[in-house]
């Protein structure tokens, strides 16, 4: 398996522009997670999906952020409008389950977002 | 609620010498514990995990960790460091049936030739 795939790997945009980050989870994984990593706050969970349905979006910072999972093999995280403080590395992860032996999250390589 | 504390923000070792990365956890449940490694500009890779089976857990690349409930610790060790071990390491805890992983602040490992 190719692992979790994210695109783009790097994104530089100007403040106010819309940004869309993409993720393809590992085939067969029912859970998909979006994280943000910054120096100040470390790794933070933004939202997670189970079987394409958003379950917990309490980590989404504000209404400018939205995430969708139209099918089992694709998810997007959108920021509109983007702001400089959104600059971070955004990771997507997927897992088979939430407990026991199935509970390991596999992370993608991340998207480094810079908003100028 | 659960949390982890990584006791060292930076560890520097010589190639061929042992590596010890310390992690203490706090959890209301029987925890699941993980160590992830992140190489520069890369994603997080799972090194090993503890999920209430054997307390000594062996992972990839010669790493192992021991779960000590009495000390609420899950320290990561490797007997002989390699240059390729230079990276950032995260200790992670989750509660029982709790998808929310709590990440430690990370320990940066530097390996000297």
Largest sheet of chain B: 6 strands, mixed
Q: Residue ranges of chain A: pLDDT <50 for 5 or more in a row?
A: none
Helices and strands of chain A: which structural class? mainly beta
Q: In one word, what is the shape of chain B?
A: globular
Number of strands of chain B: 12
Commentary on this structure:
The complex is a heterodimer of chains A (116) and B (113). By secondary structure, chain A is an all-beta fold. Chain A is built from no helices and 11 strands. Chain A has strands at residues 5-7, 10-13, 19-24, 31-38, 42-50, 53-56, 65-71, 74-79, 88-95, 106-107, 111-115. In chain A, strands 2, 4, 5, 6, 9, 10 and 11 form a 7-stranded mixed β-sheet that branches. A 4-stranded antiparallel β-sheet of chain A has the order 1-3-8-7, with no helix packed on it. In chain A, β5 (42-50) and β6 form a beta hairpin. The relative contact order of chain A is 0.33. In chain B, strands 2, 5, 6, 10, 11 and 12 form a 6-stranded mixed β-sheet that branches. Chain B is mainly β and 113 residues long. In chain B, a hairpin with a 4-residue loop joins β8 (64-68) and β9 (73-78). The model of chain B has no long low-confidence stretch (mean pLDDT 91). Helix content of chain B is 0%, strand content 55%. Chain B contains no helices and 12 strands. Chain B has strands spanning 2-6, 10-14, 19-21, 23-27, 32-38, 44-50, 56-58, 64-68, 73-78, 87-94, 102-103, 107-112. Classes of the chains: A mainly beta (116), B mainly beta (113).
